[in-house]
Specification:
- The chain has 16 helices and 24 strands.
- It is of the alpha/beta class.
- The strands form 7 sheets. The protein has a 7-stranded mixed beta sheet, with helices on both faces. The protein has a 6-stranded mixed beta sheet with strand order 9-8-7-10-11-23, sandwiched between helices. The protein has a 3-stranded antiparallel beta sheet with strand order 5-6-24.
- Strand 8, helix 7 (about 185-195) and strand 9 (about 205) form a beta-alpha-beta unit.
- The termini are far apart.
- About 50% of the residues are buried.
C-alpha cells in the first residue's frame, strides 16, 4: 500500500478516519495527471473534534518533561533517514518536485527537527527585581496551548514541520490543515512520522478540508490561541482579519517579489548561477524566488547573454528524471495563469529574450526585459518560471527599484566589495537579504520572515519561543503588603 492510499484520511485524536464533508478532494500527480488519492473533506464537526482532542491532550503534553518530549523528535529523525527514498518519491509525485527539490526539502526538514530538539529546552523564565524589598517577580514561559497551522503546497512537508515541530517541542498541541493540492506530503506524512515516533494521541491532528466546506471555522474556533499561516498575501490578509476579530495571535509568512541586484563590480559568472537558481528552483514556485534580476547597465549585456545561455540549458520535463531542472507547476490553472502573464507583458512592450511555451502543467522558462516602469508584472509575485531582467544606473536606482514593490521578503546583492553589499542590503526593505548568494535560504536558528505584504512575525530559532509561548508573571510577597484601605 502506498502512502497515498494509506494516508488518505483525516487524523484526529490518534485515529485515521474519513471526513464527513460533502465532497472529495482528489489528489493528482501534477506531471502526468495520475490520481494519487481521494479524500472526503473534513466538515465543521471534524474541526471541532480535532481542536477538542488537542485541547484535552495539551495539559499532559505541556507538563511532560522537555527532555522526554525531545525523544519524539529523535525518533522522527531516524524515521525520515530510514525512509528518505520513499518520502522523496512522494514529494516528486504529489508536488512535481525534482530530485534536487525533494532532497533540499528533506534536508531542511531534518534540520528543523534537530532544532526542535534544542528548542524544547529554551522556554526560559526570568526573575525580575521589584521596588518592594520583600517581593519576588517570576516570569514563566508557558505554552500558548493549542496552535492552528495552515501550510502551502510548494514545500508542504517542510513548511508543515517548520511550524508543527517547534510548537510541539514547546509543549503545545496542534491542528494542521495542509493545502488541498498536497494533503499527503503536507498533512498525512507529517502525522505518520510523528505517530510512529511515539507522539501521544491528540497532540497532533490533521484535517484535510477547504474553506468552501468549513468557512472560517478553523480560525474562528475558540480553542486555538495562535494561527500560523504560510501562503499568499491575499489569503493571509483574510486570516489576519478573522483571527484579530477573535483575539488570536497570528504568524504570517506570505508572498514575495524579491530582487537580486548585480552591481558593476560583481563576479558575473557567479551572479548568473545564483540568479538562475534563485529564479527557477522548483519552477519558481518559491516565495523567496528572485522575481526581478536588477543589473547595472554597465554589465547588463554580458550578464544577460550569460543568463540567457544558462536558462536555455535547463531541462524541462519529468521530475522523476534526476537530470530534470524544471518540472510541472502544481496544476493546469497555474500554468495557464503564467502563460497569460507573459503574453500580457509582451503585449505591453516587454521583449522576450526566451519565450517559454506550455504543455499541460510543464511551462518552459521565459526571460523578459525592456519592461516599462509601470508594467503590472513588476509589482506582483510570479509563482512560475519567468525571470525579469531590469537594468539600473548606480546604487541609488538599484535600491529604489528593489524597494518598488508591496512585498519585502528576501533578496540578494552581488558585488566584489562585501561592505558595499552590506551597505546596499541595509537599505532594502526586506526581512532577509543575502550578499553574494542566492535569494532562497532558510536556516533553523536564523529569524525567517518578511516586511510589508510579506508577512507578520518571524519563525526559526528563538523567534519560535516568542511565536508559540506566552509570558506569565507570578509575584510572591514574602512580607506583607500595606493596603491603602
Amino acid at each position: 500500500m502506498s502512502y497515498f492510499e494509506e494516508l488518505a484520511f483525516q487524523y484526529i485524536d490518534g485515529e485515521w478516519r474519513s471526513g464527513t464533508g460533502s465532497w472529495d478532494i482528489v489528489d493528482f500527480n501534477p506531471y502526468n495527471g495520475e490520481k494519487l488519492a481521494s479524500i472526503t473533506v473534513a466538515g465543521v464537526a471534524e474541526i471541532d473534534q480535532a481542536y477538542r482532542a488537542a485541547e484535552r491532550a495539551q495539559a499532559a503534553w505541556g507538563a511532560t518533561n522537555p527532555y522526554t518530549r525531545r525523544l519524539v523528535f529523535e525518533r522522527a529523525l531516524r524515521i525520515i533517514d530510514d525512509r528518505e527514498a520513499e518520502l522523496a518519491a512522494a514529494i516528486t509525485a504529489e508536488c512535481g518536485g525534482t530530485a534536487l527539490k525533494a532532497a533540499f526539502e528533506l534536508h531542511l526538514v531534518r534540520e528543523f527537527l534537530r532544532e526542535a530538539l534544542h528548542l524544547a529546552l529554551r522556554a526560559e523564565g526570568r526573575i525580575l527585581p521589584s521596588p518592594d524589598d520583600t517581593k519576588e517577580n517570576r516570569l514563566y514561559r508557558v505554552p500558548v496551548g493549542v496552535v492552528g497551522v495552515i501550510s502551502p503546497f510548494n514545500f508542504p512537508f517542510l513548511l508543515s514541520v517548520k511550524s508543527v515541530a517547534p510548537a510541539l517541542a514547546l509543549g503545545n498541541t496542534v491542528v494542521l490543515k495542509p493545502h488541498q493540492n498536497t494533503p499527503i506530503c503536507g498533512g498525512g506524512l507529517v502525522a505518520k512520522v510523528f505517530e510512529e515516533a511515539g507522539l501521544p494521541a491528540g497532540v497532533l491532528n490533521v484535517v484535510v478540508t477547504d474553506i468552501a466546506e468549513i468557512g472560517d471555522a478553523l480560525i474562528e474556533h475558540p480553542v486555538p490561541k495562535v494561527i500560523s499561516f504560510t501562503g499568499s498575501d491575499k489569503v493571509g490578509r483574510h486570516v489576519a482579519t478573522v483571527a484579530a476579530g477573535h483575539f488570536k495571535r497570528t504568524i504570517l509568512e506570505l508572498g514575495g517579489n524579491s530582487a537580486l541586484i548585480v552591481l558593476d563590480d560583481a563576479d558575473l559568472d557567479y551572479a548568473v548561477d545564483a540568479a538562475v537558481f534563485s529564479r527557477f528552483i522548483h519552477q519558481g514556485q518559491v516565495c523567496m524566488a528572485a522575481n526581478r534580476v536588477l543589473v547595472d547597465r554597465s554589465v547588463e549585456q554580458e550578464f544577460t547573454e550569460k543568463f540567457v545561455a544558462k536558462v536555455r540549458s535547463l531541462k524541462v520535463g519529468d521530475p522523476g528524471d534526476p537530470a530534470t531542472h524544471i518540472g510541472p507547476l502544481i496544476h493546469a490553472g497555474q500554468a495557464e495563469a503564467i502563460g497569460a502573464l507573459v503574453e500580457q507583458a509582451v503585449a505591453d512592450g516587454a521583449t522576450a529574450l526566451v519565450r517559454g511555451g506550455a504543455e499541460g502543467t510543464l511551462v518552459s522558462p521565459s526571460v523578459l526585459t525592456g519592461l516599462k516602469s509601470d508594467a503590472a508584472i513588476l509589482g506582483q509575485e510570479i509563482f512560475g518560471p519567468v525571470a525579469l531582467i531590469i537594468p539600473f544606473d548606480g546604487e541609488e536606482e538599484a535600491i529604489r527599484l528593489a524597494n518598488a514593490t508591496p512585498y519585502g521578503l528576501s533578496g540578494a546583492v552581488h558585488t566584489g566589495n562585501v561592505e558595499r553589499g552590506v551597505r546596499v542590503a541595509k537599505r532594502i526593505d526586506s526581512g532577509m537579504i543575502h550578499v553574494n548568494d542566492g535569494t532562497v535560504h532558510d536556516e533553523p536558528i536564523v529569524p525567517f520572515g518578511g516586511e510589508k505584504a510579506s508577512g507578520v512575525g518571524r519563525l526559526n530559532g528563538d523567534a519560535m519561543v516568542d511565536a508559540f509561548t506566552t509570558t506569565k508573571w507570578i509575584s510572591i510577597q514574602h512580607g506583607r503588603t500595606r493596603f491603602p484601605f
